[in-house]
Every structure is written in C-alpha cells, then in structure tokens.
C-alpha cells in the first residue's frame, strides 16, 4: 500500500478536488492499494483560528466569517456531488458545522479560548474536507470511506503540538487497516489523547499524520502532494533559477527542513526513516513531474556534492561572554537550561574554543524572553563583571548549505566564504558539524537574498555565472559597450560560462532598471519610454537597493561628480569599472581613500581605460611595480585626439581643419578645448605616476598651453573655431620650424624625479614617438629592469570602439574572477 497526502493548496477548490480524484482513480483502477490523508481546504485553518479569536474577544461579527466558512463547504458539496448522494452528505456536513457553531458560541459567552478549545476548533477543517472528499471519491466509483484520525493517533495533552504515543498509535492503525477493504480518506493534523480530547500535531501535522500511518502499515511509499515540483535547491521566491533536487537522503531532508525548507517538515521524516519507507514530494498541478525522492539509499551526486540551500529569516543572535565562562564546568548547561525553561528554541550554536563566549541563534520573537531569562540566570556573574551583559543582535538570517557529498570535497567552505567575501557580505557566525553534512552561517537580514543567489550560482547553477552591470552614461562609449555586449553575449555564455546582464542604464535625463536584465536589442526605446527621472543620487540608491550578487557599476561619463558616489558603492561590495578619469586623478587623499576602500572591502576598482583606451597600460605598469620593479621615468603620448591631429599636421594642412576633422570623427569632446587644453593628458600622467607608486597632486603638474589665450576664452564652440582660424599663422610657423629641423610635433606627458609635465615637443627620427600614426598612443617606461631598452606599449588610443572594448574586457575579467 501507498499513502498519499494532499495539502491545503491541493484541495483548495472543488476543481482541484476533481483533479486529485482523477489522479487517484487512475491509479486505483490499475489495482494500486492507496490510503489518502488530506488537510483542510486551503485557508480554512486560518479562518477557524480567526473565528475563535474574534469570539474570544466578544466580537459578534465572528458569525459573519462563520457563515462564509459554512457556505464554502456547502458550496463544495453542491458542486461536487450529484443529487442522489448530495442530501445525505449535506446532513453530515451541517451536523459538523452545527457542532462548530455551538463551540464558538460557548467561547463567545465565556470570552476564553483555551489551547484545548483551539485544538478542537482547528480540527473541523480536516474533518470537513476529509468527509466531503471521501463522499466525492465514492460518487466517482472509488470505494472509499471517511476516517477520523482521532480514533487512530494517540497523543499527550500538549495542545497545539501534541506528542504522539508511537507504540499505541501503531497498534491502533495496524488493527484498523487489517480489516480495511476501501480507500481510506483520513484527516490529517488531528489526533486525540487517552482522555478523548482532540489534539493537533503542530506545524506540518498532516504530513506527520501520513508518515505515521505509512510507517505503521509498512507502506511501500509515502507521497506528499503539494504545489511545487518537489524539494528545490533553494526557495524559488528568493532564487529564481532554483530547480528540483531529484533525490535526497533522509539526513539531507532533515537538515533542509530544519533550516526552513517548507515543503517537508522534520517530524515527517523520522517515521519513514525508521521503517526505510521512501518519501516522494510531488506536485498536484504537474503530476507527471518526477518530483523528489527521499530515501536512505540514493544515487551519488556529481559535482561538488551539494544538495540544497535554505534559510531562516528574522533571527536574533544572543551572545554571552566574559572571563567568568572560562574553565567553569556546567556553564553551558546553565545557559541552555535557562533558555529551555523560558521555552526558547535554539536554532544554531557556536562557541569559541577559548570558552570565552557562547553564541546562539533564536527567532527574534523569542529574543526578549531569552534575554530576561539569561540575565536572571547569570545575574551574579554580570553584577561582579565576570560576564558581560547579554548581547542581542537582531535582523539577521541563517543560511544553511546542505549536502552529504561535502565530506568528500575539500575546499567547499573556502569557495563558499570566498564568494561571500567578494560581494562584501559579512559572515557574523559560523557552525559546521563534524559530519560535514551542512555549513551554517549567519548574515545580516538585508543580505539574505543576495547570499542565497550568489551561493546558488556558485554551487548549484548549471547556468552561467551572472554579472549584474549598472551602466551610467549611454552616449558614444556607453552605447558602443552595450552593442558589444549584445553581440558577444551568447558566446560568453557558451564558452566562458558568463552571463553579463545589464541591470540598469542611465543618461543625464532618465534611468531604467531590471534585475533580470534589460533587453539590449531595443534599450534606447525602453529607456525613453519606460525610464524614470534620473539623478546621480537616485541611480546610486537604486543600485544599492537591488543588492544583487556580483554587481558592477560602470561609469562611461565624463561627469566630475560621479566620483562622489564611488566610496559608498565600494562599501556595499559593488565593483567599479570606470572610463571616467576624474576619481583616479583627483587629490592624492581622495585617491588613497578609494584604494583603501577597495582593499578593505575586497572589491575591485578597475580603470584600465583611463589611459590608452583599450591598451593594457595600467595593468602592465601595476604588475611591474607589484613584482618589485622600480619606475624611474615615464614618457607618453596619451591623447588619441591630439595624436591624430599632430600625426596628420603638416605644412599643407591647417591646424583648424584637423581639429574640425577630429571632432567630426568623434576623437575629441564636443568642445575640442577640453582635449587641446592639456587637462585630459594631465589627468592621465597623474594616474600613471600613482600606479607607478608615486604621490602627486594635480597642481604639481606643469602644463604647456597649446592654444593662444583668445581661443581658450571664446564664449562657445563656434566662436572658438573662429578664433582658431585667426591663429592659423601661429600654428603654420610651428610646423614649418619643425620641418626645417627634420622633426615632428608631439604633445608629450612625462614624469621623472617627482616632476610631471605636459608640453609640445619636437621629436626626431631617433625618438620612439616620431613614427606614430593616426590615433596612436605610446607609453614608454624606464625601470630597473628596463633601462637600456624601455618598456613600450603602443596602439590606438582613441575611439568609442576601443574604449568600450577596454571596459568590456574588465567586465569579463570580473566575471572570470567570480567564476574562479
């Protein structure tokens, strides 16, 4: 025989009852021997509790809710049963409802609902549902009968969560089923004491009823039918890519259920385990799905041996610490006895090996009671300062990662805590048993969802590692970056196991967010039509509120104010990839603070594109310094726009026409004076000097002006070009003088002996900058190791494509870092 249990959602409506009847009938007709345990109609138990509490408070309107409950059950009878058997069933149902009416009237009169009364009232949900369902099964040709489990399951009188007398109960059930020929439809959740008082079995009581019956009759299997496809790797409400676990051991199921997995409850597992009865968790609404099998012998899991991930919210941490705990026998016993006497349930325990402190996790709702009890128990030690006052930290969550295979796979804990650390998630407490069946830890409540998702991605997801990108600035460079990501997305998923999701975009007017990723084929239209009003502060706030695992903020603006939000982003574990040079070239103090934050919070700050666009300049220089090399001198042509202008400047071409051409090609800013002023190059040489290990302030850099004063002070861009045309003779003389000397003009930044400068120089053919072409950048570095022949990095240094590609490369690097 097999025992099938159907929960409240499975029997919540007449239509659903019809569906489970079809399922049962098909199997019954094929000769399967079945027994069915049912819960109350979905929501009925809560309604009964509400009725009792209203009656207890003397609220006359309880009768309105009672009428609604009556109508729901009578309507079910009318919809399910034909006229020939409906009348008798209506009589039976009304008799039960009449009994409920009398009990509620009594509570209303005495204004008291004891635990005993509450158990009796709650029993009506199962009694009504089992009665109606059994009669419907019979009407559909299934020989069935109603069975009130109060006649089978014996308990003590701990009303609300009664303890079952297993020996007596098994005897009663075995005797009952020996003469049973019909399909039994049994009430879940309810039982009775030796004194014939109605009791309930507590949370998950209907599952427990089914397990007790299955164990008592040595059932072939126990099937728990619910509204999900078995036990999932994580709570699907928190982790959207959670999937069904095909098989679990009893121990794994016990661990998962203890730490919050609500599909199955701990008491359900023990009776099945005792008799080696497999448990199947199945979905009433998708009966063909295989669901989850729970048994003693399961197929060995591949991979790293993880099975599931679960969590408990609203947890408080209680800590007692002090020298008075060290080496004193019985301290722990006093601690836990005190909590037990106060009816406080301990979920997790940690203790330092020094015996200096004990920390436990409990539900927040029990915190006040726990503090009071412990403070009383240790009042003498606290008064004499041997023990500090009891400390309580609320708003935490417990996360447990479960899997029997952990003991066979070294490095599981390392991978777990590395993933958390990379995302700036602080682990407050940790517990792991020597059985290595689970790793349990506590985090801030606000990090629960983020932790679950990143751990699931790291251990359970067959899908790619997700990188959530929040892009500020969707102009030429930002827009090109989105196009590059869109074109390369599938290849990165297939070959790099990396799924880059654009979770937020913004320009100066509007911003748009989608935690699951914005569709890039029409991002412009989405931003225009669906975007909300944008501001720097609002964008930052949204990024932090999303609190997504593996998040990166990308700055593709030239806005000097964006640097102001960098520190807070880093503090929240959000990596930064920036094409904006302002932050890395501001004051030395600001820069040092930025680097301090990246190290303290273990969060990357990436700015490779600040110098040389997509060229590997900063990374190369940083690796030299980190490997112990010392930089003596840096010389560089590091403006793609100015490189283009001077590489094409000759006596036959006017300077003004080249500036116009560079602007039209997108090599310069809309106002070319931002490039021609030398300020951009000044920022870059500051960045290079700092990466090389030197301290430098912006005001210490000497910049030779390229433009005459009248050009720089022109009121707008059009006026600037008019003034520039007037200075044609000045620039003509510069190029002619260079030609006569057999030289070429280059605007060069340099750093040596603590001095940085930017100046226009004539270079001859023995100079590495002489043969630069187009938008080429070139950085020449002299070090201890590169003295005779300097280290040189050269290549295109301007253009949206190469700059966007540089940012893209950083994103891939971040994704690979997380994958590792």
Task: Give a brief outline of the structure.
The protein is α/β, with parallel strands linked by helices and 820 residues long. 43% of the residues lie in helices and 21% in strands. Strand 19 (498-506) and strand 20 form a beta hairpin.
Textual characterization of the structure:
The chain is an alpha/beta fold and 820 residues long. The chain folds into 4 domains: 2-250 and 258-295, Carbamate kinase (3-Layer(aba) Sandwich); 308-459, 2-Layer Sandwich (VC0802-like); 465-612 and 806-819, Rossmann fold, CATH 3.40.50.720; 617-798, Dihydrodipicolinate Reductase, domain 2. 43% of the residues lie in helices and 21% in strands. The protein contains 29 helices and 30 strands. The chain has an 8-stranded mixed β-sheet with strand order 3-5-2-1-8-10-11-9, with helices on both faces. It has a 7-stranded mixed β-sheet with strand order 21-20-19-18-22-23-24, sandwiched between helices. Helix 3 packs antiparallel against helix 4 and helix 3 runs parallel beside helix 5 (115-139). The longest helix has 28 residues, at 83-110. The mean pLDDT is 93.
Defining key terms:
alpha/beta, elongated, VC0802-like, 30 strands, Carbamate kinase, eight-stranded mixed sheet, seven-stranded mixed sheet, Rossmann fold, single chain, 820 residues
